[in-house]
């Protein structure tokens, strides 16, 4: 490859500066002993992550300890009937699977090492929580505790082998009690095996062991403090970031007070960054930085770099620049303050190089005018050169410099030289190959450019810019068929600018006029002077072929390593037992092989022996030399010599048959133990419960008095040995509801007749005011069987004036009020396509804003335009018009047409009684159970406003305006009225299919709670998910039941009003509590504070329904006990709790933790940030986050109590069940 000339390094179609890098943390995980890595590691910084790869923008896959797992690996068959709750397994099908039957067949039950008492205790402590400690050494074969790891692994292998043998016997199979006990023993051995294989860096076996443990006992798996963490480490290592997120978030939910919380936040931030969810990545990086404990994965400086990079990747370049610039100055000052010269490769040295590199890249990305562009490029070049001087082996620095030089045609040669340097240091970087191809293309070297682009798409088949530039190259050579294929490939992989690509595709298709005749002729003879190989042959060119061969060889090596497992398990010398020699041994005795090996080492090191070693050497010399022909000498070093402090000296093989018999006997005894005896030992208590859940099973009766609860809770802190649990503290992670499985016959029927999957939507017609007030209407809508229903005639029967909510009225009342406006694409209700015209679940809905009067004019203009358009069609086509309208409704029409944008005015607040008195008064005509602020509405008792939930919001629509699929906040029911004049089309899925919808969102890489998505109806029906589909006409009221997933599209010009209601039913309470806990696990803020809501209900309501009272009373018991525990804990830390009553501000809201966003009830931990500034603010923290910030040592932390315990006792005692139904009128 040669270069003779210059090039600018970019193209008009897609500016490759906008490519989002996959690895842009710019920092790496800590590993202080990097020199002991088992494989080559990058010489960039002394820190690398768990899988050995660099998290920064530099990733040299060949240099990482464990390279990226490639898709070409063929997985082994998966185990049947095994699913992990909350974790989708479709994503890990390409991970290395270990077949247990094959593994166990290789288990050597003849050679079982033993453990002394000290080793046995340490073996029982081995857990994934010790990952940092074991990985610090880098190579498990050189770790000081490798012998314990090896022996534990071999013992667990033998245990599993014997237990599986017992489980296969008829004696155990036919006895349910024995079967349960032996399965429990299998779980204990297997979870230990999972932890040990992880610590030994045997990733394939660790993955298999963790999965098997899930199947054996999911509840016990959740109680193991290191299980989810270890599982997350495995998935993170294999770059399965979605599954890693599921595991780590579950770990945070179950053990929020763990010392590993900052490390987990770091890994979650990295995982979300790789998934391009930068807001969530920023949230977790910020949480890790706020934690005063040091994370092992990233230092505080590295976390600041990560935070800046999240700003950069999300488009806020100025914020990223300011943060990096500030950090660069601080690091420069720290280096200058050092007493001696800085050590290359030290963390401070490496961090500054990273900051300079990322600062240079941010400068390059600024979109400056052409006249000032050179200034930013010079600044970027200056930073990058400094970074290169600090870390000359970092490939991305050279790539960035190449990009800077590529902007100047006069420096194209410098650009090429730096690209070559980047390739030498990181051959597997597709961006670099793409940039090299652009340079060659500018120099009119099409063959070299072709090979570079092919290398880019070989490394990353979804590299849209490479496909685009390859298409341009073919276009220049008049190879239009190949160009068309390349452009189509680029369009499929999320291009930055899809419009130019679609234009090129449309022109090429039109010019080629693809038909059967032309497809036979092809484009191979279109241009007689064709220079380039066709696309199918381009892969066979020399450079791509060599690159592919090297990648395949590396991949085969990775497969082999995963199959073989950790090299630690092959160090058989670690399994021999060492005991003291018999010093009174006769001279005629013969030394064994190990004694001979030890004697030989002592002979070679006579001058280094201490008195104890000399004595051992003297005793060994008295023995006869062994027969060398039958002696096997184990490899030993001076490190293996006894020190005099050990309890054992020369080695000999253990009596292995006795060891295996002893192991079997031990397991047999454990299986005979009583379950009650086994569970007698009390779990070790923390000062506070490590997990608090509003759905934790109670250990006390509901009739327990408040004084008793407070007394019991006080003992949790004051006298832990006398504490009797009030509620279960080890709670499994919450799960969404599971729909009943459909039968094979039902599935076959749905396959043949998909429309059979539609459910009939209840349509209730109300003809009079009396019918509107019927209790039966309320009971039907609030029943758990009613997912969604349409009530027709209700507004007219109640003589409601809906014109008060028309666009005209709104223009008169609030013409200048700014509202949220969403920009969307116009499509049919049963269709959702992307820019390439392909079906997708991801829905484009860009936020914006406008004034009410502006949107009202837009509504009117679109109506006039549509009328004019229809008149034109009618005039031109006459009788054929009906046929054209019918054809335009066919599915897929929008795939071949340019997508037209529309605007949707949403979330218009109409709750101000001063601005909308008539409108709010009109809504009071509705029945009590569905009117805003009704007496039986739980949300009306909250005490403050939640916009859109216990207040009314309005929506202004044009045809095809969409409300994407969603579930209401905390699964509360909702009411929606169509003001008209046009209709809306509704789609809904029942609450019990929530988990199925979550699974499908995961498959389409969409966040169920935060994402914008529009489901594919055909796929839902094929999956056997029932769907409601109906039309909401003007004046119709739609009741959306608790937890119902729904999405709406306007079919005409209309306005809608909507709000949430909280029916006082056990079903609504249960669903909301499940959602509240599930949101915690998903790190999603619940808008409704369920603790406060239950206390408010107990204060204001007389309960007549036993199931509702039981649920509220249970929440009160848990909440009261936990509040007392927190108060006692604060007192024990020496902090004073100050009383500050809750503010009676209707526009206020319940405090939430600034870090984890959970509800903070009653006892607040408040910290003043930047107290020296006049505009300083106060932030609320939950007790767990306050502990992480060491609130007891920070004078700027205040602890406030909003409700006294006397007040809580009074509310608790008032919460009683009354059987007089007249005391609570649910209808009024």
From TrEMBL:
Family under the similarity heading: Belongs to the UTX family.
Keywords recorded for this protein, A-Z: Chromatin regulator, Coiled coil, Dioxygenase, Iron, Metal-binding, Nucleus, Oxidoreductase, Phosphoprotein, TPR repeat, Zinc
InterPro entries according to UniProt: Corepressor-Demethylase, JmjC_dom, KDM6_GATAL_sf, KDM6A_B-like_C-hel, KDM6A_B-like_GATAL, TPR-like_helical_dom_sf, TPR_rpt
One MF term in the entry's GO annotations: RNA polymerase II cis-regulatory region sequence-specific DNA binding
UniProt keyword annotation of Kinase present: no
UniProt name for this protein: JmjC domain-containing protein
Residue runs in coiled coils: 310-337
TPR repeat spans: 225-258, 430-463, 464-497
A matching Pfam family: KDM6_GATAL
GO cellular component term, pick one: MLL3/4 complex
Keyword Nucleus attached: yes
Span of domain JmjC: 915-1078
Top-level taxon of origin: Eukaryota
Names of required cofactors: Fe(2+)
Annotated Polar residues bias: 30-51
Gene Ontology terms describing biological process: regulation of gene expression
Stretch list, region Disordered: 1-73
Compositionally biased spans, kind Basic and acidic residues: 9-23, 52-64
Location(s), subcellular: Nucleus
């Amino acid at each position: 490859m040669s270069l003779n000339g210059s090039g600018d390094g970019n193209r008009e179609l897609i500016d490759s500066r906008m490519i989002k890098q996959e690895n842009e943390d710019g920092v790496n995980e800590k590993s202080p002993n990097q020199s002991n890595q088992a494989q080559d590691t990058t010489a960039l910084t002394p820190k690398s992550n768990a899988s050995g790869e660099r998290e920064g923008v530099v990733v040299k896959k060949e240099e990482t300890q464990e390279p990226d797992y490639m898709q070409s690996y063929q997985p082994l068959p998966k185990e049947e009937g095994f699913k992990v709750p909350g974790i989708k397994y479709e994503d890990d099908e390409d991970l290395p699977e270990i077949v247990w039957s094959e593994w166990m067949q290789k288990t050597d039950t003849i050679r079982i090492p033993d453990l002394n008492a000290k080793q046995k205790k340490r073996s029982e402590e081995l857990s994934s929580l010790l990952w940092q400690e074991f990985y610090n050494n880098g190579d498990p074969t050189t770790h000081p505790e490798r012998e314990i790891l090896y022996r534990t692994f071999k013992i667990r292998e033998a245990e599993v082998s014997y237990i599986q043998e017992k489980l296969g016997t008829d004696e155990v199979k036919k006895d349910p009690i024995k079967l349960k006990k032996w399965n429990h023993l299998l779980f204990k051995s297997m979870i230990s095996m999972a932890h040990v294989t992880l610590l030994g860096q045997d990733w394939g076996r660790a993955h298999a062991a963790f999965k098997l443990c899930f199947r054996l006992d999911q509840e016990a798996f959740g109680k193991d403090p290191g299980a989810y963490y270890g599982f997350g480490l495995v998935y993170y290592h294999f770059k399965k970031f979605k599954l890693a997120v599921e595991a780590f978030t579950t770990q945070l939910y179950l053990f929020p007070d763990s010392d590993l919380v900052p490390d987990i936040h770091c890994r979650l931030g990295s995982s979300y960054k790789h998934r391009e969810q930068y807001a969530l990545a920023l949230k977790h990086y910020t949480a890790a930085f706020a934690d005063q404990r040091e994370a092992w994965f990233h230092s505080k400086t590295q976390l600041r770099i990560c935070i800046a990079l999240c700003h950069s990747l999300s488009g806020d370049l100025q914020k990223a620049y300011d943060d990096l610039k500030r950090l660069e100055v601080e690091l420069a000052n720290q280096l200058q303050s050092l007493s001696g010269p800085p050590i290359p490769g030290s963390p401070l040295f490496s961090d500054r190089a990273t900051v300079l590199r990322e600062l240079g890249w941010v400068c390059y990305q600024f979109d400056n005018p052409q006249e000032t562009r050179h200034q930013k490029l010079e600044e970027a070049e200056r930073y990058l050169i400094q970074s290169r001087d600090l870390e000359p082996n970092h490939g991305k620095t050279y790539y960035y410099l190449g990009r800077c030089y590529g902007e100047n045609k006069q420096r194209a040669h410098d650009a090429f030289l730096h690209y070559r340097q980047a390739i030498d240091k990181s051959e597997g970087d597709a961006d670099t190959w793409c940039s090299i191809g652009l340079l060659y293309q500018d120099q009119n070297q099409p063959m070299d450019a072709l090979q570079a682009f092919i290398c880019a798409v070989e490394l990353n088949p979804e590299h849209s810019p490479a496909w685009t530039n390859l298409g341009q190259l073919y276009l220049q050579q008049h190879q239009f068929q190949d160009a068309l294929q390349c452009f189509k490939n680029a369009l499929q992989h999320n291009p930055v600018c899809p419009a130019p690509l679609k234009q090129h595709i449309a022109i090429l298709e039109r010019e080629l006029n693809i038909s059967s005749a032309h497809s036979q002729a092809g484009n191979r003879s279109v241009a007689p002077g064709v220079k380039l190989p066709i696309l199918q042959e381009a892969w066979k060119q020399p450079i791509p072929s060599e690159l592919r061969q090297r990648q395949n060889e590396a991949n085969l090596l990775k497969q082999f390593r995963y199959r073989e497992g950790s090299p630690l398990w092959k160090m058989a010398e670690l399994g021999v037992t060492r005991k003291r020699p018999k010093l009174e041994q006769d001279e005629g005795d013969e030394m064994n092989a190990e004694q001979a090996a030890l004697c030989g080492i002592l002979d070679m090191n006579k001058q280094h022996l201490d008195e104890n070693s000399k004595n051992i050497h003297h005793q060994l010399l008295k023995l006869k030399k062994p027969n060398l022909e039958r002696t096997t000498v184990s490899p030993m070093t001076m490190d293996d010599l006894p020190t005099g402090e050990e309890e054992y000296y020369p080695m000999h093989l253990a009596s292995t048959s006795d060891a295996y018999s002893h192991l079997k006997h031990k397991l047999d005894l454990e299986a005979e133990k009583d379950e009650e005896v086994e569970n007698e030992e009390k779990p070790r208590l923390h000062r506070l419960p490590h997990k608090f859940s509003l759905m934790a099973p109670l250990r006390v009766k509901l009739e327990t008095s408040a004084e008793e609860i407070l007394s019991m809770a006080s003992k949790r802190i004051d006298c832990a040995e006398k504490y009797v649990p009030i509620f279960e503290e080890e709670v499994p992670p919450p799960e969404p509801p599971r729909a009943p499985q459909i039968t094979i016959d039902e599935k076959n029927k749905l396959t043949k007749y998909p429309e059979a999957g539609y459910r009939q939507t209840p349509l209730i017609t109300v003809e009079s005011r009396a019918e509107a007030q019927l209790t039966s209407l309320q009971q039907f809508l609030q029943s758990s069987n009613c997912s969604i229903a349409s009530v027709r005639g209700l507004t007219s029967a109640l003589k409601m004036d809906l014109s008060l909510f028309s666009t005209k009225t709104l223009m008169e009342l609030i013409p200048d009020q700014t509202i949220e406006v969403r920009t969307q694409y116009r499509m049919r209700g049963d269709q959702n396509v992307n820019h390439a015209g392909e079906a997708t679940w991801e829905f484009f809905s860009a936020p914006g804003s406008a004034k009410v009067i502006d949107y009202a004019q837009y509504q009117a203009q679109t109506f006039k335009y549509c009328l004019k358009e229809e008149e034109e069609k009618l005039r031109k086509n006459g009788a054929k018009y009906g046929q054209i309208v019918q054809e335009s409704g066919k599915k897929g029409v929008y795939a071949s047409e340019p997508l037209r944008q529309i605007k949707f005015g949403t979330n218009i607040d109409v709750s101000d009684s001063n601005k909308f008195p008539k409108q709010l008064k009109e809504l009071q005509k509705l029945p009590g159970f569905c009117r805003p602020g009704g007496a039986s509405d739980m949300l009306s008792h909250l005490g403050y406003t939640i916009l859109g939930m216990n207040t009314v919001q309005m929506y202004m629509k044009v045809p095809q305006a969409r409300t994407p699929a969603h579930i209401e906040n905390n699964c509360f029911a909702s009411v929606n009225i169509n003001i008209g004049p046009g209709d809306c089309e509704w789609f809904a899925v029942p609450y019990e299919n929530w988990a199925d919808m979550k699974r499908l969102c995961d498959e389409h890489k969409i966040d169920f709670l935060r994402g914008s998505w529009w489901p594919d109806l055909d796929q839902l029906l094929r999956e056997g998910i029932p769907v409601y589909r109906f039309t909401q006409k003007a004046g119709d009221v739609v009741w959306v039941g608790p937890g119902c997933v729904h999405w709406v599209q306007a079919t005409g010009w209309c306005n809608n009003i909507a709000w949430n209601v909280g029916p006082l039913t056990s079903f609504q309470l249960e669903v909301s509590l499940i959602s509240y806990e599930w949101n915690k696990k998903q790190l999603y803020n619940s808008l409704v504070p369920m603790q406060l809501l239950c206390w408010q209900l107990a204060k204001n309501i007389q309960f007549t329904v036993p199931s509702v009272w039981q649920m509220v009373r249970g929440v009160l018991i848990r909440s009261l006990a936990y509040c007392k525990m927190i108060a006692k804990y604060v007192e024990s830390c020496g902090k004073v709790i100050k009383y500050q009553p809750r503010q009676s501000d209707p526009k206020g809201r319940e405090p939430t933790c600034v870090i984890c966003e959970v509800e903070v009830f009653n006892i607040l931990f408040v910290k003043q940030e930047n107290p020296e500034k006049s505009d300083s603010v106060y932030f609320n923290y939950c007790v767990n986050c306050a502990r992480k910030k060491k609130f007891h040592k920070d004078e700027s932390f205040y602890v406030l109590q909003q409700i006294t315990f006397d007040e809580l006792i009074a509310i608790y005692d008032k919460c009683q069940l009354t059987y007089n139904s007249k005391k609570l009128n649910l209808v009024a």
